[in-house]
Write a structure and sequence with these properties.
- The structure holds 2 protein chains of 2 kinds.
- By secondary structure, chain A is an all-alpha fold.
- Helices cover 76% and strands 0% of the residues of chain A.
- By secondary structure, chain B is an all-alpha fold.
- The chains are: A mainly alpha, B mainly alpha.
- Chains A and B meet through helix 1, helix 2 and helix 3 of A and helix 1, helix 2, helix 3, helix 4 and helix 5 of B.
Chain lengths: 103, 199
Amino acid sequence: MNPLSFCLLVSAFLFATGFAGAVTRRHAILVLVGIELMLNAANLNLIAFWRFGPNPQAMTGIIFVLFSMALAAAEAAVGLALVIAIYRHKRTSNLDEVKELRG
Amino acid sequence: MSFFLIITAVVTLFAAVIAMSLRNLVHCALMLAVSFSGVAAIYLQLNAEFVGFTEILVYVGAVAILIVMAILLTRSGETPDKTVLTSGWPAGVAVTAMVFVILGWAILNSSVLPVPPETVPHATVKNIGDILMTKYVLPLEIIALMLTAAMIGAVIIAYKEEVKSPGDRSEGAQVKPAYSNKPAPVPVAAHELEKEGAL
C-alpha cells in the first residue's frame, strides 16, 4: 500500500473514533476528548500531505499544523472551562441533563 | 512504509479506541495521552520532528493534564454505575461507521493522490522559524492575540461567581463584616492624594 494512503486511512480511523466518542458518550469531558482526537486526525492528514506531496519546500503543512495545534489548545481550555462552569451551576456534567436550550 | 510505522499506527488507534470506550474517565485521559504520544511518533517518522515534539509538549503535556484537572474538578473521577452512553448511541455508531466507510472508500479509490517523491523533505527548526517570521508573521500575531483572548475567556468563564441577589448592593456596602473590628476606611480627600502623589 502507498504510505500516503496508509497515513490517510489511519487518520480516517482516528477521526471515526473521535467522532464515535463525541456522539455516543454522555459525559461532557469525553465529548471534548473526542473533538481533540478529530483535530489530531486532521493534523495527521496535513502532515501526511506535506510529507508525500509535490512541493514540501513551502512547508505549508507544517505551519498549518502548528497554528491548528494552538487553536486546539485554546479550544480545549475554553471547553473545559465551560464544563466546569456548567458543573458549578447544575451539579452535573451529564449531557443528557443539560437541555435547557432544546426547543 | 516501514514496519515501525505500522506498529505505531496500531498502538495509536488501539489507544484511541480504548480511550473512547473505558468507563472510568481518568483511565480515558491516560489512554488519550498514550494515543497522543503515538501520533507524535507518527509525526517523527514522517520527517516532521518539530511538529512531533510540539505534539508531545502541547497535547501530552498540557491538554491531557488539563483534561485530568477538569475531571477531578467536576468530581467525575470514579466509575459511574449507570450507563455511560447517550440515549441515541446506536444512531451515533451507525453514522460513525458510515463516515469511516465513505472516507476509506474515497482514499482507496482516489486517483488524484500525489505520487510520493523520492527525495525526503527536511523541515529544520531554522527553516520553520524563518518562514514563521517572514511569510507567516501576521497569522502568528493573530494566533498570539487569539490565545490571550481564549485564556482570559477561560478564566472568566470558570471563575467562581459570587452569590448576589439583585438589589442588595447598596445595603451590602454599609453592613460591616463580622470579622473586622476596624472602622470603615475614611475616604481620603482629593488634595491629600495629590500631596502624596507629589511626594
